[in-house]
Design goal:
Layout (H helix, E strand, L loop, with lengths): L18 E2 L2 H4 L3 E11 L5 E9 L2 E7 L2 H7 L8 E7 L5 E3 L1
């Protein structure tokens, strides 16, 4: 019987690294966004996955915010940027 190692299959590289952090923990603080992806949510609609750097550490944020999703669609992939995520008057998250 063959061993799995006989197939020479390599694990896919994780393109997002770091521990998950809740968006509430980084509200109103400067972050660097290094990458993002929009994927189907396990619950409903889409979700945004952000690869960020916060206080010198790489972190990952997940959000179902339609406002953040629509705003980040305007940013070309591969371009890092600095931003602050705020909660506006109608309790919606947005980049500033």
């Amino acid at each position: 019987m063959k061993k799995f190692s006989d197939y020479h299959i390599k694990a896919p590289e994780a393109n997002f690294t770091g521990d998950k952090i809740k968006i509430e923990k980084i509200l109103n603080t400067k972050i660097e966004v290094h990458d993002y992806k929009i994927e189907k949510s396990n619950f409903h609609g889409d979700r945004l996955v952000l690869q960020i750097e916060h206080k010198g550490e790489k972190r990952i944020i997940f959000s179902g915010s339609n406002t953040l999703i629509e705003m980040i669609k305007e940013v070309p992939h591969g371009e890092a940027f600095e931003t602050t995520i705020i909660k506006n008057d109608s309790d919606r998250y947005q980049f500033s």
